[in-house]
Design a protein that fits this description.
Structural class: mainly alpha
Strand content: 5-15%
Number of strands: 6
Low-confidence stretches: 575-586
Distance between the termini: 103 Å
Radius of gyration: 29 Å
Mean pLDDT: 89
Number of helices: 27
Strand order of the largest sheet: 1-2-6-5
Shape: elongated
């Protein structure tokens, strides 16, 4: 008999050892458009059915399949600050680990093995441990596994069908991962049907349908439950859209890319992946019996994880659950001691070699895709800029939309409705010619973009008729100075406006004619040649420092001041060198 006290003791110890692998701060840029949707839902008491955040697809149909999660996110955000979402993440992951523990214990694994199983699992799913609606799907997936494990051992009753209907109705309104739940039930049905008809396939018995029919009824109830959402059957079009554009997502999102065994963060998952086949083979050779459900689930989700990293979390849970029959055979104390020491030592070494570095400047809300200075600038200049057609990069759309709506409408954000546009912009951001085509197509007059580090060598002319080679950042070639003016920049973004789209007097006050991100070194030669005055550059740096003080999070004021000092020193040395050369010639 399982001791509840011993279970909670080892679960708590295992969870404590695994915590460092999922305590990282929030950094998912999609959080912001989720909050925008949640705000809309709570303010209007209805779900959005058309886009309201962008100017490109404004009014277009949008099935917001995560609306219930978004409403919860915004409720917590508005009442308890954004840090509350971090603690929600911890609670959901911990709950998933708890349900996982119940599953393996029910399969006969001694509770003491949780001491190393949970840290191994936490390390394996590290890359999926951010704040995202998927956290609910992982939990619901495991609850469903546990429930169907019970269903396999008892008759299916009406209250169980009601459970499946209600369970999937709730899940469908939280996140699109309910599809994985339907796959689980389908494999329960097909695996059970195949298992109970092995003798029939060999011609030794009649066809049976007793064990499998209850899963077929459960699947039917679950599918009916998925239709209990504000969008009805159209919810499935969202899933097909994700599948159709998965290749485009892979160009922009790590979680949609193929698995790469050489990435250090994936080493725990790689270990499970490499050990699982021999463990499963051992179990088969020992028992000469196949659980077709577990086989189907393992094969499907392992290949899903290899092609899309976002499925790695499901594959990790499944492989360890299916390995439970092997783990429970390790019942000697010596086995437990050796295995626990090996995993605790190895995972500790792994943690301090790689993940620990991410705690160096730990913040609960550690969003790279945030720029208070940019938002402040756009709000202060709303009169001149808010009516312009704004371009923003894909990852920044959620943040800008949440902080600037309704004054500004974004161009694109992380929602699936923009999937058809991804390929076009993934290509255009690396090309001058393709960008010019996109620029003409959408007629942008305000561009918000990270400054590209890619450079192209061109020759520029000076007033005295001479020319010189310069490595220009790609964005300066994509937005030529005669048509565009930079009016704001920081460490992460710049804002450029089309000259003809804003008042000339306003532009004269706001434009940075000389200094620009990733392009400061290109001023050296024009300054030495007397083309640009140091006083003009100094004036712009002072203006920048006043508008973006060094204390601001993303301000480049310190970098600009240090560069300017270096430029003056180089200029003085160059002048002395020129003077000495003139004296020698004299």
């Amino acid at each position: 008999m399982i001791s509840a006290k011993r279970f909670f003791l080892f679960f708590s110890a295992g969870l404590l050892l695994g915590l460092p692998f999922f305590l990282f701060g929030m950094n998912n840029p999609d959080i912001f458009w989720h909050l925008s949707a949640g705000k809309y839902i709570l303010e209007n008491f209805s779900v959005p059915k058309s886009d309201f955040l962008s100017w490109t697809l404004n009014g277009s149909y949008w099935a917001d399949f995560e609306w219930l999660t978004q409403a919860l996110y915004y409720f917590l955000y508005s009442h308890f600050q954004i840090e509350s979402l971090y603690f929600l993440k911890i609670a959901l992951i911990s709950a998933s680990l708890f349900v996982f523990s119940l599953i393996v214990i029910k399969k006969g694994v001694n509770e003491k093995h949780l001491l190393w199983l949970l840290p191994l699992l936490c390390a394996s799913i590290l890359t999926s441990s951010d704040v995202r609606p998927e956290n609910f799907s992982v939990l619901f997936f495991l609850i469903l596994w546990l429930k169907t494990q019970d269903t396999a051992e008892s008759p299916l009753k009406l209250k169980s069908l009601i459970f499946f209907l209600a369970f999937f109705s709730l899940w469908t309104n939280l996140h699109g991962g309910f599809i994985y739940g339907l796959i689980l039930l389908f494999f329960r049905f097909s695996g059970s049907l195949l298992g109970e008809n092995l003798d029939f396939s060999a011609g030794r018995a009649s066809f049976k349908f007793e064990a499998s029919k209850k899963f077929l009824f459960a699947l039917a109830a679950a599918m009916a439950g998925t239709l209990l959402n504000p969008y009805g059957f159209k919810i499935y079009s969202v899933m097909s859209s994700h599948f159709a554009h998965s290749a485009d997502y892979a160009q922009l999102l790590l979680e949609w890319r193929d698995f790469d065994i050489t990435v250090p963060y994936f080493r725990p998952f790689s270990f499970i992946l490499l050990v699982f086949p021999p463990v499963y083979l051992w179990h088969f050779l020992k028992n000469r019996k196949i659980d077709f459900f577990e086989l189907f689930m393992s094969v499907f989700f392992i290949f899903s994880a290899l092609f899309h990293l976002r499925n790695l979390v499901f594959a990790s849970f499944i492989m360890l659950i299916v390995s439970a029959d092997f783990i429970k055979s390790l019942n000697k104390l010596s086995h437990f001691m050796v295995i626990s020491f090996f995993f605790v030592f190895s995972l500790t070494l792994h943690f301090f070699s790689y993940p620990a570095k991410d705690y160096a400047q730990f913040k609960i809300a550690d969003f790279y895709f945030s720029s208070p200075g940019l938002v402040k600038f756009l709000k202060e200049n709303e009169k001149e800029l808010s009516g312009l057609k704004m371009y923003n990069s894909w990852a920044w759309g959620g943040y800008l939309g949440f902080n600037l709506y309704p004054s500004y409408k974004v161009f694109i954000d992380g929602r699936y409705i923009f999937s058809p546009m991804l390929y076009e912009f993934a290509a255009a951001r690396e090309s001058v010619q393709l960008w010019r085509q996109v620029l003409k197509k959408y007629d942008f007059s305000l561009v918000i973009s990270p400054p590209s580090s890619q450079r192209i060598t061109v020759r520029k002319n000076l007033k005295n008729g001479s020319d010189y080679a310069v490595n220009m950042p790609l964005y300066q070639l994509q937005l030529p100075k005669e048509d565009w003016a930079i009016v704001y920049f920081d460490k992460k973004n710049f804002a450029a406006v089309k000259r003809k789209a804003v008042p000339a007097l306003w532009l004269k006050r706001k434009e940075y004619k000389f200094i620009a991100p990733n392009a400061l070194d290109n001023l050296d030669y024009p300054v030495y040649a007397g083309e640009i005055s140091l006083k003009e550059i100094e004036k712009e740096i002072v203006k920048y420092s006043l508008e973006n003080p060094p204390g601001d999070e993303n301000s480049m004021a310190v970098e600009l001041l240090n560069w300017y000092k270096s430029l003056k020193v180089k200029g003085r040395k160059n002048a002395e060198k020129t003077s000495s050369l003139s004296l020698c010639r004299f």
